[in-house]
Amino acid sequence: MTATDELRTLLNAPGILSFPCCYDALSTKLIERAGFPLSFMSGFAVSAVRLGLPDAGLISYGEMLEQGRSICRATTIPIIGDGDTGYGNAVNVKRTVRGYAEAGFAAVMVEDQEWPKRCGHTHGKSVVSRGEATTRIRAAVDARDEGADILVLARTDALAGHGLEEALWRAEAFSALGADMLFVEAPESRQQMETICERVPGHHLANMLEDGESPLLSDTELEAIGFKLVAHPFALLGASIGAMKQALEALKAGTTVEPRVSFSELKADVGFDDYYREEKRYLYEDETS
Questions:
Q1: What is the C-alpha to C-alpha distance for residues 30 and 33, in angstroms, rounded to an integer?
Q2: Which domains occur in the chain, in start order?
Q3: How confident is the model at residue 277 (pLDDT cuts 50, 70, 90)?
Q4: What are the beta bridge partners of residue 107?
Q5: Residue 62 to residues 6, 67, 81, 99, 250: CA-CA distances in angstroms?
């Protein structure tokens, strides 16, 4: 099966799909080794680790695509790619979807924010008109139907500035256009989350962001509400930044850093064990004598 086929199978199987988000090849490999069935390439996290800049439209399509290729090559599990707004008009959206499919993504998320877009849980974001929003998703679905081996996750950020009813209208329109998954960003209460899943049939994604706008609920609670996918966008990025800050504080104070993993484990995590096994396969007589 392709990654897209595998994701489609996961979506149609019983049970909720909960996963941390990735941002580079190593984080993706660790997610797969931990047993998660899929992941999501977070634009927030990629912008942070690749550029050291906020998720405010500063990273380009080309940079996201290059990072995505590295991520998809490093794993066998399906990856959903953050395609932001599609990086332009409908023709750009189709190019983005095709490019993400060629990079190896199983799905691409396209949203209705104005450019420059922002993280969905920060202030200052705004959305395009209904017409432009639906045109983006129609273009993404057309790219899929015209041969791109990829699924479409349609996202709306309309709730924050325009209210729940507008967000529901857009989610319903995206579903009618053929989006494979739906994402109404930043609901502010459990009741809103329940309304979203009740009013709009489909595979909904919940974004569980610590200190964000939405209530933090367990996978069991989210499944009962009707969500199919649960993303934890900063579980790994936050943990890694926190660990690095602690290590830097210790080094600055002149003390040694308490190892969180042994050197042997670190070597295994970055692939030395696999490398040594592969290297051994290709030893020739001069090297063994």
A1: 5
A2: 3-241 (3.20.20.60), 259-289 (no CATH)
A3: very high
A4: 80, 151
A5: 26, 9, 13, 10, 37
Distance between CA atoms of 276 and 78, rounded to whole angstroms?
Answer: 27
4-48 pLDDT, tens digit per residue, is: 999 999 999 999 999 999 999 999 999 999 999 999 999 999 999
What DSSP string describes 206-257?
EE--TTSSS----HHHHHHHT-SEEEETTHHHHHHHHHHHHHHHHHHTT-PP
DSSP state, 39?
Answer: E
Task: Provide the phi-psi class of 150: left if phi over 0, else alpha when psi is between -120 and 50, else beta.
Answer: beta
Strand partners, 22: 41
Predicted model pTM: 0.94
Cα–Cα distance measured from residue 35 to residue 49, given in angstroms and rounded to the nearest whole number:
24
In this predicted structure, what is the pLDDT of residue 116?
83
| Alpha-carbon gap, residue 191 to 44, rounded angstroms | 27
Give CA–CA dist 87/109, Å, rounded: 12
Separation in Å, CA 5 to CA 10, 79, 274: 9, 12, 27
CB of 143 closer than 8 Å to CB of 98 = yes
Query: Average model confidence (pLDDT) for the chain?
Result: 94
pLDDT more than 90, % of the chain: 86
CA nearest to 122, candidates 110, 135, 109, 113: 113
